[in-house]
Amino acid sequence: MRRLLSRRRRILAKLPPLEEVLRGSVIVRSLRCGKPSCHCAEGEGHPATYLSVTLAGGRTEQISLPAGLVPVAERGVAYYRAWWAAIEQLSAINRDLIRRRRRQPTRPSRRPIRRSPRSRRP
User: Fold this and answer.
1) Are 86 and 11 in contact (CB under 8 A)?
2) What is the C-alpha separation between 109 and 111, in angstroms, rounded?
3) Which of 47, 51, 79, 80 is the Cys-Cys partner for 63 at CB 3.0 to 4.6 Å?
4) Helix (H, G, I), strand (E, B), or coil: what is residue 120?
5) Cβ atoms of 80 and 21 closer than 8 Å
6) Contact, 65 vs 73, CB < 8 A?
7) In what order do the strands lie in the sheet with 46-54?
8) Which helix (H) or strand (E) holds 95?
9) What is this structure's pTM?
10) pLDDT tens digit string along 52-111?
């Protein structure tokens, strides 16, 4: 039981800052600008980087990322994955703790002392 509790503390100590967590995926797409004389008209398109997030209800939001924000977004997504992995590990540890606590014999509870009723005086 102590090993599980110690492992749980170690997992929590390694977590990245929660305030920088970012759910989504950083994706790079190729776009064509539409100019007939541009290299993208026949060859590879212009690379564009986005943060893609699927919202409740299935709608997808894509935020265009300038080059300076790509590392920030990638780090935030990596932090999100680290937190999610830690939650899964902590949940597994907590399930093991529950199983072990279930198997432990329960201590007999102290029964309240019963006192005989006082006899009433007339």
Assistant:
1) yes
2) 6
3) 51
4) coil
5) yes
6) yes
7) 25-31, 46-54, 60-64
8) helix 70-103
9) 0.72
10) 999 999 999 999 999 999 999 999 999 999 999 999 999 999 999 999 888 776 666 666
